[in-house]
Design brief:
It contains two helices and nine strands; from the N terminus they run E-H-E-E-E-E-H-E-E-E-E. By secondary structure, it is mainly β.
Length: about 130
């Protein structure tokens, strides 16, 4: 008895590997380690996308005690973050970084799905 995945004569479809849902840089991982070890101990960072701003979408980050049924769990560089499943199509291949500048510091996102950003940088569109 043999099992065949494709009918005889059918073209064989090659699949390609999907990019990781999300990755974090070393700077973001260090900052998350510090946050998880201090005031946010025992919590997880959830990343989502909301409708907001000039361009239509903005990144949303919130703390939660446990993964919800609609969360994708992403582990990278020794840290765990949650991605809201509704946002996953917007975030595939995104890199989360942590930047410290002269007057500001915070998490930033490099998203290959973005087609543009508003002038102030608060929102984006795909």
């Amino acid at each position: 008895m043999s099992t065949t995945l494709t009918p005889p004569g059918a073209p064989v479809r090659k699949t390609r590997a999907l990019p990781p849902l999300m990755s974090v840089t070393e700077a973001a991982a260090e900052r998350l380690h510090a946050l998880y070890a201090s005031g946010e101990q025992g919590k997880l960072l959830r990343i989502g996308v909301n409708t907001k701003g000039c361009s239509g979408l903005s990144y949303d980050m919130s703390w939660t005690d446990a993964p919800g049924p609609g969360d994708e769990i992403v582990g990278d560089r020794g840290v765990t973050v949650l991605v809201d499943r509704k946002a996953s199509l917007f975030l595939i291949g995104t890199t989360m970084d942590y930047e410290v500048k002269a007057l500001t510091s915070g998490f930033t996102f490099t998203n290959p799905n973005e087609k543009g950003r508003c002038g102030c940088g608060e929102s984006f569109h795909v």
